[in-house]
Batch of 4 targets.
Target 1
Amino acid sequence: MQSIPMTVLGAKALEAELLKLKDVERPRIVEDIATARAHGDLKENAEYHAAKEEQSFCEGRIKEIESKLSCMQVIDVSRLNQDGRCVFGTTITLMNIDDDNEITYQIVGEDEADIALNKISCHSPIAAALMGNEEGDEVTVKAPAGDIQYEILEVQYL
């Protein structure tokens, strides 16, 4: 099975979600099913069917998280060789060469990626273009709208 790279914070967040699903959500759903069963006929009991559907979703998510945790490779960015290269977990400040706009991204695992927080997947086109490059390098990102030229201004190991 292929290992799944993840930062320390991402691993903790996944473990916290698993704990919440098992200790809070699962018992609540069981109570909801019991309450709905007490209402009688199950064929036309919308509460019962909704609770069973929620239980199915919850159990599926628990299995998915457990599978990911079993294949996870936690990478502590602070312990990496800090030689200035863009690698998994680093935070990179880029400047768009065409319009001089600056943006900062952190390269993370797929489950941690959140563009609103400037966290991009290590499998994204931007991350693929950045990997292995150093501060001062210029990289070309192949985007659907066309190629975008960036200069790497800073690489941080946070």
Target 2
Amino acid sequence: MADDVKDKVIRIIAEQAMLEPSDIEMTQSLQDIGIDSLGLVESIFAIEEEFDIQVPFNANEPEAGDFDISSVAAIVGAVEGLVAAQKS
């Protein structure tokens, strides 16, 4: 399941950045990829819809929440945690 979540999150991020999923590296930040604040919000909405989860994210204070957006790997890990919590 973890690879499935990872692949879906990377696909969503790649779509927002208008890149191929293969161009996305786990160590990159969204800023490195070229995703601005609007793209971040769109990515969050797409993640919520894809996984039927509620992401604890405040667009007015993106760094203040419990959802780590510091890198692609952090986002994938946070989504994996939310998906696992939903299933339990």
Target 3
Amino acid sequence: MIVRAVAAADLAAWQRLYAGYAAFYGVTQTEEMRARVWGWLMDPAHGTEGLVAETDGVVVGIAHYRSFARPLSATIGGFLDDLFVGPEARGSGAAEALVAGVADVGRTRGWSLIRWITAEDNYRARGLYDRVAEKAKWVTYDIKL
């Protein structure tokens, strides 16, 4: 299992996996939306970055992350926005490797933590998350704009 930065040559695999991620969460996602996110990932000036997990030359998982300010602690943290492993590679260690890859980026950059959210009923992923991280006490709210 190799975890590395997403590259231009990963476009087709990334599109397949990102569409699968949207379908998993029941989110309608268009090609235009995927093109916008891909543009962010390919733009070094944009804050969103990505990793891929690759097995035998095949991209089997993706992770998107970004930094965020933590004013109360006067530190910078990392936010793991999206994590998805294709059904054919679940149980392979790809998800854990991607989380570890984002954590490695954070250590290198001096981030104070990596934070992410998941659906309450995402039990399979939560089994991994409970093993590799501490469940936060914070409740999340959204205002739709």
Target 4
Amino acid sequence: MKVEAVVVRDRVETVMEAVEEQTGHVGVTVVEAVGHGREKGITHEYRGRVFESRFLPKAHLTFVVPDEIAERVVEAVVDAAKTGHVNGDGICWMSQVTGVTHNRTGLKLEEVEIRG
């Protein structure tokens, strides 16, 4: 399974640590991103002038994990990504992936998991 999440940049390390602690999974890809949800950005005031920022700094995390731990990864991400603010904590989702092969070894993900 592929578990993806968009989270506040400040929560990236917290999310990665939570996933490792709760599931043992350590592999992740992190891409810097910008976007907005229902909050539609934020308003800044600088030297008496008002500026609107439609896009907020976020991070896009991708975990490719065995099916058996995918739900636990989602739970860990969602719990660790919470900031306590009303809006803007991001989202998390899963999707099926097939044919995952490690570039270095040429082995399928299932074979790597078995060999440990």
